[in-house]
Amino acid sequence: MAKKILLNESDIPERWYNILPDLPGPPAPYLHPGTLQPMGPADLAPIFPQAIIAQEVSAEPWIEIPDEVREVYKIWRPSPVYRADRLEKALDTPAKIYFKYEGVSPAGSHKPNTAVPQAYYNAKEGVKRLTTETGAGQWGSALAFAGALFDLEVTVYMVKVSYEQKPYRRAMMETWGATVHPSPTSLTNAGRGILAQDPDSPGSLGIAISEAVEDAATHEDAKYSLGSVVNHVLLHQTVIGLETQKQMEMAGDYPDVVIGCVGGGSNFAGLSYPFIGDRLKGKHPKTRFIAAEPAACPTLTRGVYAYDFGDAVGMGPVVKMYTLGHSFIPDRIHAGGLRYHGDAPSLCALVEAGVVEARAYKQNECFAEAVRFARTEGFLPAPEAAHALRAVVEEAMAAKESGQSRTILFNLSGHGHFDMSAYDAYFAGKLEDVELSQSRIDAAVEELPRVPATI
Fold this sequence. Notes:
This protein is an alpha/beta fold.
């Protein structure tokens, strides 16, 4: 049995897979934040380059990857698939567990898969500076890396709680030349408004998005770059699943269950969408898909499926998704990349259709599985990916109880080398198991925009 399954550079996908044409129903339109009417491509022009806008609204099932992007991908792609046989033995399960490891990228996560093409398209259209938000710092560091390759300035608004928890993520971004601000800041109207209400605000991804969008929209030489949620980001990430399909074929296997953690949805979609495409086309109708999220920010499991702003102050598009309300500020959990009030519209549509199952987990049970994984397989998972591991173990133990084997595939979306303060807190017994109260959810969703019934 091979421990790792490797591809050649010639196996890097030549096209990204666009799931939108294969969804069970037509995707809900984006709405203009001012009028709450459907947006057209021209409405996105102030913040995105034309090539990205075209991909965002494309109905083509396959989008060609530029040669320049594939050349950069060669730095870390194709990434390996591993058989987690040591974890299998530790769990005494008949299940077979495989994982795709995206921590091999220069930034240490899956995020460069979309940061590189976004930087490429912006540079090609003459953009000089990119603005963005970041939670735990994986996305900000990926865009900083990509900006350095294409000679772009990068301004990052990093959620304040993560800025304080993960100083080396900030240093990493600055090493690649980015400017990093703890959000909320006094540099934007959005930030000043939040600070006026709460000078000690820990920040949120929704707030950081508002600041980054405002920065881009008010400077002609700048565009906004997003690390998750929107269609073009999930499209770029499908290189993960497309490679994995080849690797599972090399292993002579096919997953019964595909698992990923979910904040906005990019790493989950990157691995799962090519396999979901198989299911939607009737090729493997029994494959199951599990999205693992934090109990402190349980959008898919306890949120409302409705139109909401993607950012805290309502500057960006209004999208239909599972949401806890755009004003919701999650507790200070260490999985900073999962602290988002909503999710990717395409993923939410798949959850609503019953294609994807969502589960929510508390911090301590996830870190327990991350430690077990590190002590069996050697890799130190990021706190975000630890949520996927918790679901993996549940599935493996269910296989043990039933006495029936199953093939489990998950995305180890990044390493935890910059998250040691979180592991320290776990070992010291200082991690809180935050579970959101229904009253907080009810209060947050009261502020949902009143979308016309005709939409």
